Amino acid sequence: MNFLDIHFLNIDVNEVFQDHLKELLKLAMTSNGSQGVYFFFYSSQQDGFILKDSFTTNKSPIKPVIVHHNEIFSRMYDPEFDGRIYKYDQHIKKFYTEEQEIPKSLILSPIRLNHAVIGFLLQEHKEEGFFSDHELRVSGHIGKLVNMLLSNSNTLDRLQKRGDRLSVLLDVASILSMVTSREEFLKEISAHRKDFLHFDRAVLTMREEFESYFKIDAVSGKSDWLKQGMMFHLSETLVAKAIISGTPQYFEDVQKTKWSGVYKPGDLNLYQFQAVVALPLGSDENSGGALVLEFSEKQDFFVDDINVLSMIAMNLGASIRRLFLFEKLSEIATIDPLTDILNLRALNERLTNELSRSNRYETPITIMFLDLDKFKSINDTFGHLMGDEVIRETAKIIKENLRDADILGRYGGEEFVAVLTNTPILSGKIVADRIVKALENKTFKLGTQTAKCKISIGASQFPIHGKTINDLIETADSAMYEAKAHGGNQVVLYKEI
User: Fold this and answer.
1) Contact 472, 460 (CB under 8 A)
2) Helix (H, G, I), strand (E, B), or coil: what is residue 141?
3) 303 and 381 share one domain
4) Using CA atoms, how far apart are residues 140 and 109, in angstroms rounded to an integer?
């Protein structure tokens, strides 16, 4: 059976506890002849014990909150103390609001969880001397039953939370298998933070294989001095230790940590968080990075929390490796290896999308067809290595003169196509003239060899000179040949032919 299918994970743990507690209070009352049984639970906010439940036959003026420094509790913190019978005195008076209605006989039995006192049972009767050692023993047994009930409820609650965490883990794992960027990874993990730990910032750190530093790859949450792209050496810091050792590293209170830093030595002086956990993206030593979760408040990390988060981090690492392979395959499929710009297939895809967008918004596009002049003589004179160098450097020069929104691809051989988005042809000519001038002034070098090579550019405009890729390439290509016919090293617009 799948752990998540166990039926008790859908039970309201608090409701079950309350029902069982009510039965035990009733049992205590009937077995001891008490007129009232009360369960008090310690509250740090109230600095005392608050009344959580009761079972009575009469309305007693008992206080809803009893301060814990009442002298009557001095013995209750003794591990050997199982309970005691109390008679009416000045200490008992502090339990009640009206002195004339105070019961004359009481039994107090401590309630413990993991050996720590967390509350007590109080049984009362109006007759002085009503309770004997027999009732005290019975009350002690009832107290132990409440102890067991609390322990079982606590275990059930933790199992339930573990089931919830496993459910979150499965949910996150499913999402991580579909997202396509590292920023999306952190966004999805941050979206689920309410389900396991309420962290305030998530940071993805990555380490290139065999490198002695790690990089801040993505940040989601509160911002400070830490920025995407920063690099830090693998020194004696919390994040570096997690990456190198392949094991989770954390501190729960920044004031008590012995670490020299989180990301770099000495950065705790600038650190705005109180707690942090760094989870490696793999279980082996020298992992590829770490997922860092940071908290504005001090934390008490449980093993279950760390284990679930570690599984999420490792799942994230596997997903990132998948993404990395996807990016590499995508790069191989779309990037020209010599020039590091789009290949012909990717160029056609991008141009198709751009034509559709421009047609929808009725914006112009300038298409430039670029061809190196007398390139064959470069190969014949200096060899193909120099020819490759000229093509590679020419691509860089063209790209430097384009905007980020523009598109550049290698059409084939020494030919290039540039797509200037939202640009009329006359504005495009200014860019083309700049490229021609840059190539004219460029001296290509390879070893001791130097060479010069110029370029001819033809340009056309969408949709004036064509509405399809073929028409636009053809018109720009014909304009380029016109430029060559006039000696090259110049720009010709299709409308000038």
Assistant:
1) yes
2) helix
3) no
4) 6
| Spatial distance between the Cα atoms of 239 and 248, rounded to a whole number of angstroms | 9
- CA dist., res. 42 & res. 379, Å (int): 88
Beta bridge partners of 108: 84, 122
Contact 196, 165 (CB under 8 A): yes
Q: How far is CA 38 from the centre of its chain?
A: 46
Q: For the domain that residue 415 is a member of, what is the CATH number?
A: 3.30.70.270
Q: Is residue 414 annotated as part of the catalytic site, yes or no?
A: yes
- Are residue 193 and residue 146 in the same domain, yes or no? no
Do 30 and 133 have their domain in common?
Answer: yes
| Torsion angle of the four alpha carbons 195, 198, 203, 209, in this order, in degrees rounded to the nearest 10 | -50
Looking at the fold, whether 152 and 251 belong to one and the same domain comes out as no
pLDDT digits (tens, 9 = 90+) for 335-351: 898 999 999 989 999 99
CA distances from 459 to 208, 395, 491 (A): 43, 17, 8
List 124, 354, 389, 414, catalytic entry: 414
- Give the range of the structural domain holding residue 277, as residue numbers without chain letter: 182-332
Give residue-wise pLDDT tens across range 53-102.
Answer: 888 887 788 888 887 766 677 777 788 888 888 887 767 777 888 776 78
* DSSP 8-state secondary structure symbol assigned to residue 161: H
- Final residue belonging to a domain, choices 123, 157, 191: 157
State the pairing for strand pair 455-462/116-125.
unpaired
Q: What is the edge-to-edge ordering of all strands in the sheet holding 36-43? A: 65-67, 48-56, 36-43, 116-125, 105-113, 84-87
| C-alpha separations of 258 from 245, 262, 270, 272, 278 in Å | 18, 11, 16, 17, 15
Please give the model's pTM, rounded to 2 decimal places. Answer: 0.47
